[in-house]
Design a protein that fits this description.
heterodimer; A: alpha/beta; Rossmann fold; 4 domains; 6-stranded mixed sheet; 24 strands; about 30% helix; globular; disordered N terminus; B: mainly alpha; ABC transporter involved in vitamin B12 uptake, BtuC; two-stranded antiparallel ribbon; 12 helices; 4 strands; nucleotide-binding (chain A); Sugar ABC transporter ATP-binding protein (chain A); translocase (chain A); ABC_transporter-like_CS (chain A); transport (chain A)
């Protein structure tokens, strides 16, 4: 409703084709964030409808609402003319709504056939008809043209093959409405082709397909229509024949640069860290430097190798080749401990899995890296522990009942402040922030950016990883673009356009998805 | 528009202490009830006896709690106790000074704990498996060393110790204090204690914050092994023999004590005073049931039921405070 161009296409009601699912003012609010602003959108039976948008645009929220994983805040969903609640995943499946997720959510330790019929096993006299199930599964797989065995353990297949099984599984359950969430992220080109063939076949059988992808070429290859989301707002829908990549990219990122990006100029000082032709699991041949007072931005899609690169710098994984220099001297960082001793600090990508001890108090989380320093002999200095925790809680304005409250009781933004705050008293010189503002509301974002300035003013350097282009674009002094484990381009502050950077990250036009083995 | 956040929780400041108090209240209640319902409960003799009965499990439970806080489990402690009675007996009978015999036995406990750490950290075995393996093989090694016989300890002074008392309190209970106080300081006032909790809560976050996760796991199992070996020495003193089949099932009593004392088997929640109280609650139930002439078989059933009830209510209360 923000874009003026919207009015050229008064939303749905194009062409014939019965509407199978209609969203009327569908909305989702979390505490502190408005994940999806009211959406009006109609999906037609038998169409392939692509949804594009940046990370955090609201795509996954939309999927969760449609598959009944989360309840909506308000609005109506009309399924075949009838309002539906979509309160549980079971209800969504019973209607015929299924999803194939980017990460395979099947049982790796069961056979392919067992996974295909999970929950709908072929049972006779109380016994599983294993042989019949394998036979039936194999028939389905063969029909779909996948050359895969049905009797092997799912975990023995590649991720891409598992993805194909997940798709095949979704087709055998009376599915009328199938959502693919970035299905090709881990597929080779050949596997992707098989998947596309499956999708076209489903379409021919009248199944409605929602196809979510970052890859423009796939959208243009498959979709009939495409809808754009941006910052939780539905921007518009286009017929694929009436639009082009440039327009979609513009719709995806078109924004007034909000005042939240706060960038002070600091003199760039000496080199803190230099990586020379560093290779490791998930990335190869990366060279870059970080200086005092500098923000180095790493932009790319999820899985482009950025997180792997920084965690390797941080000693979490072993490098396979290349050298790392710290203050001009070669260093061998073999563990996180080594990295922290040098003066690195990492605020990892996943708060829940890597950043926080959720069922422990806020204070303990904030102090975890500095217990050695605030101990006198064997004992922790209680006053130092309190002082340090209180200082961060008030300094960062962490909203909590106190340092004894559990980290799990805080909102996402405040949890993120803990992940960052625990390093502030540590005296680190190189801060690595991996997606620091994911799931964080605008106010907290601004606070986190101001914190960057404080760190820079103290002579620290920052590596900022983000999949959210405006963030790195507006903050980074040097911007490196990653694609599939390689550093493909480097820009200075505002020396390239959004479109160029996005294109570099998404892949050149001629390059096909998957590709490298 | 920053975070309207989730409604703030009430401070959990004295949460652990509060739970400790409710457990203490339960223990006192049991004592009061038993004092009124039996004539023999509230006698000095019986109280001393009760303290002796509970002491050894209490010490085991403290060691066990360190392990459980990291998210692990130590099934070997009962077997270590039995094995330690054998080594203590053999070493004392070989003519070594008692304190040397004790020291060597304690070192054996440390070695067993280090082995557990090695199995978990270096070999990637689940704690349940590696400690289960030690449980069965230690009993076997003990039986091989003794040919299945008990070894009588020929040192009266050593046996006197467990029967004696100091200012009216049994020596065995003093041992609980000897272990409990340093354990409390260790768990709640040193960084190693904090690291135990952080590893149990989220090992990856702890590692990325610079905590040496492997060392922390070694430490937890070593402490548990040490506590178990110490209890082995005490048991040898109390029964005057070394026998590898002693302390059968004590690992389960230690785990039960720990869980009754508020330790979460999922890790990251636990204290030192909780398991101590848990152990004495269990001891009181057994003692009281004996005095009330409850069938010994029923005692087991009652103990099991009580574990379910106590832990269930603890879970309810925990969820309730959220």
């Amino acid at each position: 409703m923000t874009s003026a161009t919207l009015h050229q296409h008064p939303a749905p009601e194009l062409e014939p084709g019965k509407v199978i699912l209609e969203l009327r003012g569908l909305e989702k609010k979390y505490p502190g964030t408005h994940a999806l602003k009211p959406v009006n959108l109609a999906f037609k039976a038998g169409e392939i409808h692509a949804i594009v948008g940046e990370n955090g645009a609201g795509k996954s929220t939309l999927i969760k609402l449609l598959t009944g994983v989360m309840p909506r805040t308000s609005g109506d969903v009309i399924w075949e003319g009838e309002p539906v609640a979509l309160a549980t995943p079971h209800e969504a499946m019973a209607l015929g709504i299924n999803a194939v997720h980017q990460e395979v959510v099947l049982c790796r330790h069961l056979s392919v056939a067992a996974n295909m019929f999970l929950g709908e096993e072929n049972v006779r006299y109380g016994l599983l008809q294993q042989r019949a199930m394998v036979r039936d599964a194999q028939k389905i797989i063969n029909d779909l043209g996948f050359n895969l065995p049905a009797h092997v353990m799912l975990g023995d297949l590649t991720i891409g093959q598992q993805q194909l099984i997940a798709a095949a599984r979704a087709t055998v359950r009376g599915t009328k409405f199938l959502i693919f969430d970035e299905p090709t992220a881990y597929l080779t080109r050949k596997e992707a082709d098989q998947l596309f063939a499956l999708i076209r076949r489903l379409k021919a059988e009248g199944v409605t397909i929602i196809y979510i992808s970052h890859r423009m070429e796939e959208v243009f290859e498959l979709a009939d229509r495409v809808s754009v989301l941006r910052d939780g707002t539905y921007v518009g829908t286009r017929n694929i024949k009436e639009t082009d990549e440039a327009e979609l990219v513009r719709l995806m990122i078109n924004r007034s640069i909000e005042q939240i990006y706060h960038k002070d100029e600091f003199p760039i000082g000496r080199t803190i860290l230099e990586a020379r032709q560093l290779s490791g699991k998930g990335f190869e041949n990366i060279s870059m430097t970080v200086h005092e007072g500098e923000i180095v931005g790493l932009y790319g899609l999820i899985g482009a190798g950025r997180s792997e690169f920084v965690t390797t710098l941080y000693g979490r994984h072993a490098k396979s080749s290349g050298t790392v220099l710290w203050d001009g001297k070669e260093v061998h960082i073999r563990s996180e401990h080594d990295a922290i001793k040098l003066g690195m600090a990492l605020a990892p990508e996943s708060r829940r899995d890597q950043g926080l001890c959720l069922n422990l108090p806020v204070g303990l989380n904030l102090n975890l890296p500095v217990y050695k320093r605030i101990s006198k002999g064997l004992l922790i200095s209680g006053s130092e522990e309190t002082k340090h925790a209180e200082q961060q809680i008030s300094g960062l304005r962490i909203k909590t009942a106190g340092r004894h409250a559990l980290a799990s009781s805080l909102s996402g933004g405040n949890q993120q402040k803990i992940v960052i705050g625990k390093w502030l008293n540590h005296g680190a010189r190189l801060f690595i922030f991996d997606e620091p503002t994911v799931g964080v509301d605008v106010g907290t974002k601004a606070e986190i950016y101001r914190l960057f300035s404080t760190l820079l003013s103290q002579g620290a350097g920052i590596i900022l990883i983000s999949s959210y282009l405006p963030e790195v674009y507006e903050l980074a002094d040097t911007l490196h673009v990653f694609r599939r484990g390689k550093l493909v381009a480097t820009h200075g502050f505002h020396t390239a356009s959004h479109e160029d950077i996005l294109t570099q990250a998404l892949a050149e036009k001629q390059e096909k998805p998957g590709g490298q083995p | 528009m920053s975070t309207e956040a989730i409604p703030a929780e009430k401070p959990k400041r004295n949460y652990n202490a509060l739970f400790g108090l409710t457990l203490l209240a339960l223990l006192v209640l049991l004592w009061v009830l038993l004092s009124f319902s039996t004539s023999s409960f509230a006698t000095a003799n019986n109280i001393s006896n009760l303290l002796r009965q509970g002491s050894m499990i209490a010490i085991l439970a403290v060691g066990q709690t360190f392990v459980i806080i990291t998210g692990g489990i130590d099934l070997s402690v009962g077997a270590v106790v039995g094995f330690a009675t054998v080594t203590t007996a053999m070493l004392i009978n070989s003519g070594l000074p008692v304190f040397v015999a004790i020291l060597i036995t304690l070192l054996i406990g440390v070695a067993i704990g280090l082995f557990h750490g090695f199995g978990i950290v270096k070999m990637g075995l689940p704690p349940f498996i590696i400690t289960l393996a030690t449980l069965t093989s230690l009993r076997g090694i003990g039986l091989l060393m003794t040919n299945g016989n008990s070894i009588s300890i020929n040192n009266d002074a050593f046996q006197e110790f467990s029967r004696g008392s100091f200012i009216g309190v049994p020596n065995l209970f003093w041992m609980v204090i000897l272990v409990g106080v340093p354990a409390y300081i260790f768990l709640h006032h040193t960084r190693w204690g904090r690291y135990l909790f952080s590893v149990g809560s989220n090992a990856e976050a702890a590692r990325l914050s610079g905590v040496n996760v492997q060392r922390t796991i070694y430490m937890a199992y070593t402490l548990s092994g040490l506590c178990a070996a110490f209890v082995g020495v005490l048991l040898a003193s109390r029964i005057g023999i070394g026998n590898p089949t002693q302390a059968e099932g004590w690992e389960l009593q230690a785990i039960a004590s720990s869980v009754i004392g508020g330790t979460s088997l999922f890790g990251a929640i636990g204290s030192v005073h909780g398991p101590l109280l848990g152990a004495f609650i269990l001891a009181t139930i057994n003692n009281g049931a004996n005095l009330l002439n409850v069938n010994a078989f029923w005692q087991r059933v009652i103990t099991g039921a009580l574990i379910i009830v106590i832990v269930y209510f603890d879970g309810l209360r925990r969820r309730g405070t959220k």
